[in-house]
Design goal:
By secondary structure, this protein is mostly helical. 81% of the residues lie in helices and 0% in strands. The chain contains 9 helices and no strands. It has helices at 8-38, 40-52, 54-85, 95-98, 101-104, 106-134, 143-151, 155-182, 191-218. The longest helix is centred in the N-terminal third of the chain and has 32 residues, at 54-85. The chain is globular, with a radius of gyration of 20 Å.
Length: 220
């Protein structure tokens, strides 16, 4: 890992790999949460399996946390390195003519998304850790849907989630394609396909999470 992050190219490559891992996780996370829309039993069963499966809890969950922290830390490091490499601004810099707003402000969107992740962990992960390991309460297979449903009783929380996932969509719109470019997956034949998939991904994934939040709010 130290060798991979010792150069700019290595850091970009490592960040791209962590991004791809998180892209896969978002699909899995959305798939499980969508079950809450179609039935309480399906969501409770899936959540109970994931919440008490040793492989998921003690292997995959730490790996996920490391990937999230690594991705955002590496983003900040790359931004600082880029600014140090070009300390003096250009006399004329029309950034909008050469890149999108999101590509120039990935650090800002990343910081906001990271803050949202902390809120999300407070809402669900910390609650789960307290339930299982602090209070030591017994397994209750039917509690998961109710816990999720109750979180979206307040409109301010729904609005916050909607805004956060909207910003995530903008972040993904640039990050999806950028991660493939960073690992050298660029070709005149395949790049348009990657771009199209990235565009759909950056729309459908956030919309899926937004739909879940609104669904639980309007069905209180």
């Amino acid at each position: 890992m130290a060798g991979l992050t010792s150069s700019t190219i290595g850091r970009k490559y490592a960040m791209a790999l962590s991004a791809m891992f998180l892209l896969i996780f978002l699909v899995m996370h959305l798939s499980v949460n969508l079950l809450s829309v179609f039935g309480q039993d399906a969501y409770n069963n899936a959540s109970q399996f994931m919440g008490y499966n040793p492989l998921i809890q003690f292997v995959m969950q730490p790996v996920l946390m490391f990937a999230v922290i690594f991705h955002f830390v590496m983003g900040f490091v790359l931004e600082i390195k880029n600014k140090k490499a070009r300390p003096v601004g250009y006399n004329v810099n029309n950034g909008a003519a050469n890149s999108t707003w999101m590509s120039r402000n990935m650090l800002i969107s990343g910081a906001v998304i990271l803050a949202f992740i902390f809120l999300h962990m407070y809402d669900f992960w910390l609650h789960e850790m307290n339930y299982k390991y602090v209070d030591g309460l017994p397994v209750e297979e039917t509690r998961f849907w109710g816990d999720l449903h109750a979180k979206f009783a307040d409109v301010w929380r729904v609005v916050l989630y909607v805004i956060s996932f909207g910003l995530l969509g903008l972040h993904l719109a640039h990050g999806f394609q950028s991660s493939f470019q960073s690992v050298g997956a660029r070709h005149p034949k395949y790049t348009p396909v990657v771009r199209a998939i990235g565009n759909w991904y950056s729309i459908l994934i956030p919309l899926g999470f937004i739909f879940i939040a609104i669904f639980h709010y309007v069905t209180q």
